[in-house]
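Notes from the pairing session

We agreed to fold both candidates in a single pass and log them together. This is the raw record for the first candidate, unedited. Please don't reformat it; downstream parsing expects exactly this layout.

Candidate A
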Amino acid sequence: MPVKIRLQRHGKKGKPYYWIVAADARSKRDGKYLEKLGAYNPNTNPATVELNVDGAVQWLQNGAQPTDTAKTLLSYKGALLKNHLVGGVRKGALTEEQAEAKFTAWLEEKESKIQAKAEGLSDVEAKVKADALAAEKAVNEARIAAATPVVEEAEEEVAEQAPVIEEVVDEAPAAEEAPATEATKDEE
């Protein structure tokens, strides 16, 4: 029975989430699998990969073939390196302790790279937010500066028109009162 280490898709539309599984090559993509080895979430930055390295190495030792994407993920987590080191121990090129020391040194280096990338991303996000805030403040100040002279001109126009309005208001009641008094005399 040919065994493949491959991804099995889960999650909703547009938000994929994958399981890393060892499955019969003839089974469906999301069908029956032999063993779940881990999970892969490409929606996060950096992508989250959880993997049972020892289980993956065991399947690789037994002849399981990883797909291209699964091979990339196994390499990312060090399963292929560990498989290579186990092969060296089996041939007698390395001792068990040397292989384990090389693997832990590689893991520490890889973890520091991942941490550096995460910090770099947070720094970039902070810089982008600061730049956006500065640009928004500049736009707002320009808008305020452009609106201020218009407001002053509008106030001057209103001040010039105010005496005219008062004159019209003063004249209007006098004109209305005269006919009203005549009308009252006619009624009597």
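Candidate B (folded immediately after A)
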Amino acid sequence: MLEPISISMASLNFPALLPMAILAVGALGIICIDLMVKGLTKSFYTMVTVLLIILDFGAVVGYNGSIRGFFDVMLVDGIAQIAQIIILVASAFFVPLSLGQRQFKEYEMAEYYALFLFMIVGFQFMVASDNLILIFLGLETSSLALYTLIALHNRNKAFEAAIKYFTMGALAAGFYALSALIFYALTGSVEIHQIEEVLIQRDFEPLLGILAGTVFMLGAIGFKISLVPFHTWTPDVYEGSSSPLAGYMSIVPKIAGFVVAMRLFEMLVLSGVVWLEYILYGIVVLTMTVSNLTALVQEDVKRMLAFSSIAHAGSMMAAILIGTTQANTALFLYWTLFMFTNLGAFTLLWAVRHEKNLWDERYQHPFSKFSGMVKIMPTTATIMGVFMFALAGMPPFSVFWGKLYLISAAVNSQFIGLAIIIVVNSAIAVYYYMKLVIYMFLKEPVNNDASIFATNTSTPLKVIVGFATMMTLFAIVFVEPLLNMITKYVVASGF
């Protein structure tokens, strides 16, 4: 007779699941409220969603329990905590963007807010685990919710974008499952730390099997964070999505992908697998260079920002390639600073959105739309100019400090060639960012009617843009305390 398995409540460590439980229960609560009470406004759902995110934030920051939890599949280390903080802060800034002046169908639906919360839960599971199965569940939960959120925008291009994203996402999910299967077959485990131990004991043999598992995982993660050559979906999906959701996709799904890549690939690189370092090096250089060169010829600002976000993702993969504590700290510092600036830029696109393509038959945000904007809407043009200077990495704006720290990490780790490539690509990026500035400040307006640029502007949007501008302009004030906080979390994780 088999003896019953005894599991102590302490070993389950349920508080590790509390952040995810808050949002999951909250999402179900929103659906139930909608079933019972009809006619609730988007302001109500926005307020409830932000409140749940704040409660989740408190649970993440206030957690001081064991690193492991829930049958040891949860991993709540410093990396998981700082990644969740970035995810929740970006999410809290995204939700109020639904309160624009124009009426959009998706923002009136309770399901939109419930799906958004489930998406965050998926991202949190991805970053708070080193179990390949739980990471996969988080990946699919977030992805399925995101596909639906894109389609809810109820435009032909939105449907097309959702289908493209779903198709590519299904392929990436297959790659991930196959990679996890290979690593399990090789090591008998789906825990990344146990996989590392077994591979080190076997001196990374059989090499062909490990290579296959790594390549498939690179394909899956490369899709999630838009690495070349897995980036082809990005500009089309961003163009078809609403501007706020495109800005959100450029930040949050990628930080989740970076954490998974950090846990798996840094383990392999630092264990002396030279061929993996060469593969990652090639992907990093290709991602930065190809995306920057492609951005040069874009005619639409949103597509230009899409390729821009791919280039920035390439810089972040450079940090994972370097693999030191300074590089990992640089990754989170860079992405935090980039988050405010990029969300601010996409928010401005949302504010000046017009239901008709008045400037171009193909694009909604062509460069010509912004011609002479400084004469029509000087404040908007100036703020967008600030965001462009910051994204280009010009001092003293926010992204400059993240890029400087990343280059410093590369030089200190003897990746001199990589540091030079980052600098050269930053110089290339200046051209297409300044292209928009030239249109806004040095060209004559195509249309002098300021009202058509302000059809979606509202007080919440102005507040969010204002805060993003302050964070971009005065980053030098809080870079050092932010750096100290991030370093503490990274060091605590042993990265």
